Amino acid sequence: MKSNTMITAALAATLLLAGCAKPQEKAKEEPKAEAPAVDLAAEEQAVRNRSGEWMNYANSKDAASIANGIFAPDAIMISDDKAYRGSSEIQAAMEEQIKKAPDALVNWTSDKVRVADSGDLAVEFGSFTFDPDGEGKKSARQGSFATTWAKVDGQWRVTSDAGGDNIEAAKP
To answer: Each residue of 14-72: pLDDT tens digit?
Structure first.
């Protein structure tokens, strides 16, 4: 009986060792391909450039180019406490803003752009100035924004944008 137990133990040990050896051999046969390195600085600059294009369209009152060329088709824009979804709603909202303030000028700066290691997603944080009548008598508003960008068909497009006026510090 002892010999049956010893044979069974030896057989189990052999199978165990054989089972352990195969994954190691398989791992050696199939090396993982490394993902190509993403130039994060170049992608950050590309986002900043697209943001600049957007500002140019805004000041030339080109709502169609913003809604259909800068924003992704399924994007969301939150402005003045309202959410606009998709290109057509975003374009309509911008056209309404242009009608209300035809002389308005907007300027923004990208304070920080963070690009994901994958190189296909980025978040832009910044500050803006909105002057409702250009060089008129109305006061300009100061605010902050956060914009999410994604690569869509190889081009950076806005997937979400939200901003608001800065809150004044409480006076003592």
So the answer is: 444 445 554 555 556 666 667 668 999 999 999 999 999 999 999 999 999 999 999 99
Pairwise CA distance, residues 16 & 18, whole Å: 5
- Tell me how far apart the alpha carbons of residues 159 and 120 are, in angstroms, rounded to a whole number: 12
Q: Which two tokens stand for residue 143?
A: 């605010």
Q: Kindly report the CATH number that applies to the domain delimited by 40-165.
A: 3.10.450.50
* Nearest residue to 130 (alpha-carbon basis) of 105, 153, 111: 105
Chain mean position to CA 125: 11
Six token digits for residue 134: 């250009």
Given a contact cutoff of 8 angstroms between Cβ atoms, the answer to whether 156 and 47 are in contact is yes
Q: Which residues pair with 121 in a beta bridge?
A: 150
Q: Give the C-alpha separation, 69 to 96, whole Å.
A: 19
- All structural domains of the chain with their residue ranges: 1-33, 40-165
